[in-house]
Structure prediction request, 995 residues.
Amino acid sequence: MIDFQIVPADFYLLLPEMVLSVGAMLLLFLELFLKGNKTVQQWTAFAIFVVALSLLLSQESSGATGFGMMVRSDLFGQFISAVVLIGGGLTVLLGKEYLVSREWHRGEYYSLLLFASVGMLFMVRGLDLLVIFLGLELLSISLYILVGYFRDRLFSNEAALKYLLLGAFASGFLLYGIAYTYGSYGTTNLNEIRTMGSPESMTFHWIGLSLILVGFSFKVALVPFHMWLPDVYQGAPTPVTGFMATTTKAAAFAAMLRILFYGFPADIAEWMPLFWFLSAVTMTVGNVIALQQSNLKRMLAYSAIAHAGYLMIGVTVGTETGAAGMLFYLLGYLFMNIGAFAVVQYFEGKDETRLDFESYAGLAKKHPLISLAMTLFMFALAGFPLTVGFTGKFYIFTTAINQGFVWLIVIAVLNSLISVYYYLRVVIYMYMKPLEEEIEFSPMELPAKVALTVCVYAVLHLGVLPGNFITLAREAVSAIF
Amino acid sequence: MIGILSLHIILPMLGILALIFIPDKEKSLMKVVAIGFTLATFVVSVVMLAKFEIGPSDMQFVEYAEWIPQWGISYKIGVDGISLFLILITTLLTPLSLLSSWNSINEGHKGFLVSMLALEVGIIGVFLSMDLFLFYVFWEVMLIPMYFIIGIWGGEKRIYAAVKFIIYTMFGSLLMLVAIFWLYYLSSEQFGSPTTDLLMLYKLELPYNTQFWLFLAFTLSFAIKIPLFPFHTWLPDAHVEAPTAGSVILAGVLLKMGGYGLLRYCLPLFPEATVRLAPYLISLAVFGGIIYGALVAMVQPDMKKLIAYSSVSHMGFVVLGIFVLNQQGLQGAVIQMVNHGLSTGALFLLVGFIYERRHSRLISEYGGIAKIMPFYAATFLIVVLSSLGLPGLNGFVGEFLILVGSFKYSIFFTTFAATGVILAAVYLLWMYQRVMFGKVTNEKNSGLSDLSLREKWVIVPLIVLIVFIGIYPKPILDRIEPSVTNLLNVVQANSNGEKLKISPDVTPVSPERN
Prediction:
């Protein structure tokens, strides 16, 4: 058993989480005293994210563990935590304008984002199944509230309830799986499981691992565990949808990678056929259903499912480079997707009536820059070169080919072809159809502009000069192998 | 130091940058700037032509820079006899097509000009790339401006045509991408570290089975671009709907990317598969390309569609020339690509001129135009004759060489291919007759004005080149020849015992006439 001692250095490891948590509570107080001043709330929340990120990046990433091997500070955790925190920061920047225009601006929004981020940080930095579970629960509970944030709107309520029910179901699976794993190994610590090698009960091991995988499949929305996703994405406030689609996916995939590759390295090869199948089915179902969507948020929701399928290729491959490809892709996906949702939230209008393709008709003439940004994000999601969508896919797909998964990649590129059709529909409406109705949008506020610019820049930078980030992703995954 | 080849890519990019900062109201300034930058690019490429050394078969003016060293990807560009004239025709046709559309684009000038310049960057990049990754980047990125050109400034069914264009080409290029991944993997397997450097990839030793699949994937992508039957159906739609400038670039240069791809990638990378599969591609080229294209062209009521199908037929000759795998055939294929770019580009420009006046492309709307627009009719005649391969004009040189090459390969195929020349005469002259001769049957046509000075400036350079190449093709053939010989030697050496029917050491014929 682990000798459980807490030394001051352990707290140093958890500094980012602590800053986020304290900051979240601080914001709740600020809400009491600073009711009117929304800008201060926004910038405070943003500052908390920035501080947490800089603390995180300044930490040593040598693989030091803390709290009796409960958490581990390594490059892998750092990489994904950075993705989460950047995503959180961008969502803060995008959130205020959206909420103010709907008269729903509350300090809780920022607090919940911060709490959700804490949860995700625990998920990706936890070395114990229970810590990962706790992180997941903290994340989920914050998200249930964020999804149902507009409590007077039916859509939002429906989404929150669906998410709660299915999310709780998934958590149950996960916890049950952890229990079985404990039953077969006598511990929930991934480090011990790894060193132990063979379990005491193979049956329990199998049941445990499959239940854990089901739990995570719900979270990253692999087919057939994806049913909740479109409704939830559609009903949630748009900035929250962008946040969920990117950071949650990153955190859940990272936790899955850590559990599988770090905890159960021997099992990956055996599970490969299942992963292969999940990957192929997920991307195909996601893309084919996305073709039929007329609502942009739903289209992006199904595209999120499809992208989960592409990411699963990295798991299927089961090598270090496969995982590195996934990290790189998750980083890129963050920017292209949050960017796309940022444009959607700008155009959707106060009452969210302008979410269908038709309402994008002719927008390029009146909003050339925002339309150009949207075009970039769509081409990036479709995987065109010079955007991160291409370099990311190149990374994952070449790795898969190296391991001989030619047919999986053929399926994947044909899926990309399908996706070209629906992503470009947005472009068609914006550029090639005449303007339907004259609608005045209030000009985009500075924070949102900053967020959008960051996304555009990152999509291009990672697409044209990905070199350093490839190295970084490679170094990061070596921590879990 | 920026080399002369990088200038070809950078100048249009600078043009785009300049255009972005010009206010929307300054329409003429924008056009002048765009044409200025494309003309500067043309001048640069003429300088390159002048400096190009005759004799060496390898790449010249090679530039190299690291790009993504982690993946073994570099920015490596170069030019040889095969790509030289394709680049020249690109830099020539772009300013001409911009000049031709001086008045025909009514809204979104800036977007149009930016798209045209981006298109030029993409196409030149494809011809210059000596790195597979770089090639693919240009190959794909080039689709986006073309997609916008068709989709925004096109005709009535423009969206349908644009989507069809992009989905068709993407289908091919994505399967090619899988093949690129595969090559990439094989390179890391055989060389120790992965690379996309083309000259390194040439050294890969691939078993026939692997070559077969890779060859199919690459060829499919190129066959869609060329286009070869049965992958040609996007072409008529794209051509008919695209604005004149778009059609000119599409037919003049874009299709050549397919033929160029076959020469640069399929032949040297997969020599054994090339030799073994050549008969199938030849029969496809002859029956599906040359003859089918000509027959369908014959019955088109729409001039643009007719020319589009004639492209299918003419590009069939290119494929035939490539896969007979001998000196004459290959040389003919390269020069045929150049010639087809000139004459079909000119044809689309001419149809564009009359479309601007009458807003119709239907042959039946016209008749007796020769009396009303004599200069127009004269130039049109020269271009038509060049397109159908009249000796003394450029079209003849390529088709003659290809037929000579093909004759050495198989009399059977040559017989059928030669009927394509006859059929070309039928559909082109028949169209010419119906449009130009006879009485003026349509009242609306009686007041048409002949070509303006601007339009003459567009068409005359092309006519000059058409005549020049027809009379004296030697300077061009001399520059093409070493690279082609080298290519044939590579194919021969690596075809693993699969004998080429004709040894490549035959001295080339230079059909100098007059």
